[in-house]
Structure formats: C-alpha cells, structure tokens
Amino acid sequence: MRPLFKKKIIIPIIASAFLFVGASFKDDFFEIAKQIEIFTTLFKEVNKNYVDETNPGQLMDQAIKGMLASLDPYTVYFNEQDVVKFKINNTGEYTGIGALLTRTESKLIVKEIYKNFPADKAGLKAGDAIIQIGDVVLSDFKDDASQLFKGAKNTKIDIKFIRQDKTNTTQLVLDEIEIKSVPFFAKVDEKTGYIVLSQFSKKASLETKEALEQLKREGAERIILDLRDNPGGLLNEAVNICNLFVPKNEIIVTTKSKIDKHNNVYKTTREPIDTEIPLVILVNGKSASASEIVSGALQDLDRAVVIGSRSFGKGLVQRPVDLTYGTQLKVTISRYYTPSGRCIQALDYAHKDKNGMAIKTEEKNYNAFKTRKGRTVYDGGGIQPDIELDETKTSAIANALIKNDGIFNYVTSYYYKNPGLGDKIPTFSDADYADFKQFLKEKKFSFDTETEIALKNTLAAAKKEKIDETISVEYQQLLTALQKSESNLLDKNQKEIKGLILDEIIKRYQYQEGLYQYYVKNNTEIKKAVNVLNSSSEYKAILKI
Q1: Which of 28, 49, 116, 376 is the one with CA 20 to 30 A from 391?
Q2: DSSP β-ladder status, 347-352 and 376-378
Q3: Where is pLDDT greater, at 215 or 5?
C-alpha cells in the first residue's frame, strides 16, 4: 500500500508545477522537467531510506507549502483536509453562531458578538473562553474547531466556557446567518448620508444601492462611503459599486499578467444611480483589495474625495485552481491597476531584503500619475488620500495593544465592573487611563515590539550558551529602559489609545451598531468628511471641478 500512496502524492506536485508555468512552459520545459525529476527522485529516496518511518503525505504537504512561502502570502496550497475545512463564502449567508472567535492552544476566545444571532441569544459575551463544544474538549482537539459548529438549522450544541474565572454552560441553536455587506447606514445631518461598506460579498453592490436610494429618499444630497477596515472581496462587486456613481462603460480597474488571458479590463456595465451627488470615501491602513479598487478608481475619475490614511496596498489577484485528489491551489495570477495606471500593490515579493522580507517602495521612488482632470496622484502601494489625517494612523504602541489583546482584556474587566452602562456613552477619564496602565502592569502585559522580542531572544541565546549570568545586569538595565520607553509611549499616545478603548467599550454594551451610531456624531474622519461636503468650494477645489 505504501508505494501506491507515494505515487498518489507525487502526482499533484507535478500537476501544480505545470500550472505555475502557464504560457512560458514550453520555453522552460527542460528546466521544469529536470527539477521535477530531481524532486521525485529525492522524495522516493527519503521515504525509502530515512532511519524512521516517514509520513509521505505530511512530507509532501510541507514541501509544497515551503515552496509557495518563497512567493507571496496569498499563493496557498490546500491539501484534501484543508479543502474540506476551508470554505470561501461569498454569499453572506451560512449556518453558524454569529460571533468572531480566535483560537488559542486550548480554547476559543469570543472576540465579538453579533446582535440577535445564536451566540448572542445563548448569552455568550466577548471575552468568554470556550473550552468544550459538545463532547469535544478543545485542549484535546488540535484541528480546526470551527467544524464543531457545523450543522443544519436548529441544531443544538452544548457549550462549556469560562467567564471571569468561573466555568459556565449554555446551549447554541444554529441558524441561517446573513452577514451584511452594509451593516449600517444613516443620515449624519439633514443633507449628508453615511454608508458603511464592510465587505465585498455577492450582495455588496445591491445593499449599497439600496442604502444610497433610501438615503436619497430621506433627503440626503451628499454621501460618505466608509471603507475603513474593509479587507475586500469580489472584484465584480467593486466595479458595480463604482457604477452607482459613474456612467456605463467607464474603466474601473485593469489586471496585468505575464499570461494574456489574465490581462483584463473591467468596465461599468449598468446605468448609474447618481453621477452628480458629492461623494467622500473614507479609507485607512486596513482598507484593502476591492476597497482600494473603489477608492482608487473614483479618485482617478475625480468622482470622489478620499479622506483618511493610506490604504493597505493589496493589489495582487488570486484565482483558485482545482488539483488532483481533492486538493486545491490559490495562486496569484496578476496585479491590479487603477484607471490612471497606478499599481495598488505595496510590497514587492519578488525582491526581498536580507531578512527575507518583501521590499516596500520608498516614498522618493513613487511614480506620479494624472487623474482625468489632471490632478497628480502617486503609486507606491495602496491609495493615498486626497486629505490625509495623521490622527487616523495607528501608532506602533497602539498596534501592539490591539495585536496582543491589551485593550480587549482590559475592556473585558471593565465590562464586568460596570454592568449597568447600557446605551450610555461613558467618559473615559485620565483616572480610567491610569487604571488601564495599572492593569497592563499587573497582568505583566508584553508589547512584543521588535525591540522587545530581539532583547528576549538575546537572553534566550545567552542562557543556551550559559553566559546569561555575565550579561544579566546589562540585560535588566536594557529591559527597564525599554519598559520605561513603552510607558512613555502610552502617555504620548494617550488620546489615540483612549479612543480605541472607548470604541471597544461601546461595542461590548451596544454591539457594532452602537459604535456606528457613536461614530456618526463623534468620529474625526466623518467630521472632516462632513466639513468638506458642506464646503462646496473646498470640495470642487480638491477635485478641480
């Protein structure tokens, strides 16, 4: 049986190699055939001669994933098990629990609850640590835990979780969940409509269209389209959303590849809703892919003013390719370009630095392009706003607090100390901030900045080489200095961090909808957008209308 199994595993790598080369295969035939033969021979000899019993499937899986890791993070191989687990859902509907979860070694942490969905109805809260699903104890279950929540509508699943050091139980009842692409829209003032577009699923353009039409019926004469934190999605939905504001047959985005069939021009195909209504688009560093197509195209066509901070810069296009034996490849096939010719992609994975990191274009090397009316815009990755707001950029210390759950864990503690807040908006005072800093200190919070990680690695290496005693004093001095620096950064960036804490507090009591309601009246970017839209002369001057 073993030789047959090896044979089955070898075939997919040969098939995938043929897929990679595309139109250039004939030119490189000898080199490709040579490398496949070398790999096949090596694979056979390792499995035959290695001192211990090998797992051919596991070896091949690691070999393929290691090969792809040298390309870009979006080119990914899915083995048979991965394909079963991995479901790309573009419909916005699935059977599930209605919560955002993250996995740790032995539990699932509830990061956010969506209002009136199964997890909410079961009484789960952000900060809960799920330790058992049905009969499965998560500390003993190393596979993808999301599969434990699969089932038909009305399936009942018993849950055991820890909240504030106490073990609790509840029961989830699965339901059909519709995740909206437009989770919120409202009027900011009498004449300004605000639409949040959080993802580009199959219903994105329809939901955006419905929101736009409803706001116009309510008297909106100008629109703010919020694409902040939107990671992207379906390309055709980005084109259709642009089509709401620009005429039929406009070029929105172009894809360029070494393979002719992947070189495409995407144009609007429908009659627009409103080509005149003043429009502001909000973006930030987490606006990516389809978000950048929309903001970049409408900027290049002088159809919208873009406000915020430079977008993420994800301009690589992937397509799934089915391989043999139920495996799959998601491979980067081309790059996105805006109507003016700008490449959206920020990182160059074909050229890496001495640490193996993809190179980012320096600002001095940005190239200038012209919008339809002759405004100068630049490439360099992502979309640079017409109006950049420094306060919208996330500092390194804030990123560390978000990444390592410093803010999340503090707000969990805050929530249970203040159970009666309800729909009130709290004032997060200087005393509260001092409490936050004390919380980080008591929990021995690690910021895990690059400097901190490098310092810890130095001590680990010193211990391994048994020279740690000779540098212990110097190490402690450096660590103390670093911690003091981090404390100073907490003070320096207090306003920004306070805002992030307040956002998380509002979500705990009032869900995402409550946060959007708060933003409408208090958010810096929205206020700036309203000011620009209220000043017809400033709006027209920016767009050279």
Answers
A1: 376
A2: unpaired
A3: 215
In whole angstroms, give the CA distance from residue 366 to residue 357: 20
- Please say whether the beta carbons of 84 and 150 come within 8 A: no
Task: Report which of 309, 308, 330 is spatially closest to residue 320, judged by C-alpha positions.
Answer: 330
At 261-320, the pLDDT tens digits run 999 999 999 999 999 999 999 999 999 999 999 999 999 999 999 999 999 999 998 888
Rounded CA-CA distance 413/489 in Å is: 23
Q: What pLDDT shows up at residue 25?
A: 52
- Residues tagged active-site: 289, 300, 314
Which of 543, 537, 539 has its CA nearest to residue 529?
539
- Of 442, 416, 529, the C-alpha closest to 128 is 416
Phi, psi of 191 (to 5 degrees): -115, -5
- Rounded to 5 degrees, φ, ψ at 476 are -65, -35
Beta strand 192-196 pairing with 222-226: parallel
Those residues whose C-beta lies under 8 Å from the C-beta of residue 159, and which sit 6 or more positions away, are 122, 124, 130, 132, 133, 169, 170, 171, 172
Gap between the Cα atoms of 540 and 545, Å rounded:
5
pLDDT digits (tens, 9 = 90+) for 505-524: 999 999 999 999 999 999 99
Exposure class string for 498-537: b at 16+ Cβ within 10 A, else e:
bbbbbebbbbbbbbbebbbbbbbeebebbebbbebbeeee
Q: What is the phi/psi pair of residue 65, to 5°?
A: -65, -35
